[in-house]
Specification:
286 residues; alpha/beta; 7-stranded mixed sheet; 7 strands; binds guanosine-5',3'-tetraphosphate
Length: 286
């Protein structure tokens, strides 16, 4: 689901998260492993106000593993605890409570030194729409309970979801807006399906995706669509469009007269890319 974010929504979303920060020990910041910076809220450091944070690169099953490793290092170098995850299959979820304990070790040691009981760690998941917040919540809860709407401004009674005995999650995740200031960010989000391409022009989105794949993963594109030659000049739009047309011809996206229907071809390219038919692809490198 796509939200149109306006300044009022952003302020409200921010206030909602700030109110929840008082209830929790730590934040789980969910990013898309394929585009960790583009899927990151631009004001996240300010909003989270030094709350201990575990960064999770989700959808790692769709991302290029070599690039994901580089991103893990990137965030570690910035002093963050970071984990990769495939929330859809559950791969990696079990590590979350363990990492949470590492993150909060100092606080927990202090409580122990004072002879206080350890209570469950309380956490809030935050992230932009579609990054996998509900999927992760359901995974951690072990059952399907978090059918949340992506509606800024909608509040429900707060409930805690138990994750084993050592962790509790606020049932409604914090929904954040992505970066908008850079056009490339919008295209990267649209290529991966994080925002609907209808907001942008589908052919433009597919063009952006095709150009990127030609530059970084040509062999996979060539194999999948039986293409011979990469675009002669990547910066010449006609050369990239020729590749899109060749793909369209392979997939039978033709109009009367035999010309390629570029809109249909664009939809095919995006569908196959998002479904992982071109293999694991990252749209952004550190
Ligand atoms: P949100 O709450 O942050 O808005 O995101 P949500 O959990 O609804 O997830 C958005 C989409 O991303 C869902 O797909 C979900 O299945 C998928 N997803 C979440 N985590 C992962 C992951 O780690 N790997 C992969 N491959 N997909 C993930 P959908 O198309 O909206 O629904 P459906 O395909 O589950 O029916």
């Amino acid at each position: 689901m796509t939200i149109q974010w306006f300044p009022g929504h952003m302020t409200r979303a921010r206030r909602q998260i700030e109110a929840k920060l008082k209830l929790i020990d730590m934040v789980v910041e969910l990013l898309d492993a394929r585009l960790p910076l583009s899927s990151r809220n631009p004001m996240i450091d300010e909003i989270l106000q030094n709350k201990p944070r575990l960064i999770i690169l989700n959808k790692a099953d769709l991302a290029d593993p070599v690039i994901t490793d580089a991103w893990v290092q990137y965030f570690k170098d910035q002093g963050h605890e970071v984990l990769t995850l495939d929330a859809a299959s559950g791969q990696g979820t079990r590590e979350i409570p363990e990492r949470a304990k590492v993150l909060l070790k100092e606080q927990r040691d202090k409580r122990a030194a004072k002879g206080m009981n350890q209570r469950a760690i309380r956490a809030l998941i935050v992230g932009i729409p579609n990054v996998g917040k509900s999927t992760l919540t359901n995974r951690l809860a072990g059952k399907s309970i978090a059918a949340t709407g992506d509606r800024p401004g909608v509040t429900k009674g707060q409930q805690w979801i138990k994750v084993g005995t050592e962790m509790e999650l606020l049932d409604t995740p914090g929904i954040l807006w992505p970066k908008f200031e850079d056009q490339g960010v919008g295209y990267r989000l649209a290529v991966t399906g994080a925002i609907r391409e209808e907001i942008l022009n589908v052919e433009d989105v597919a063009y952006f995706g095709t150009k990127y794949i030609c530059e970084h993963y040509w062999d996979r594109l060539a194999e999948r669509f039986e293409l011979d030659e990469p675009p002669q000049d990547m910066d010449n739009p006609n050369d990239v469009v020729e590749i899109m047309e060749a793909i369209g011809r392979k997939r039978g996206c033709l109009m009367s007269g035999g010309r390629v229907d570029l809109e249909k071809a664009s939809k095919v390219i995006l569908r196959e890319l998002r479904a992982g038919k071109l293999g694991r692809i990252s749209m952004e490198r550190p």
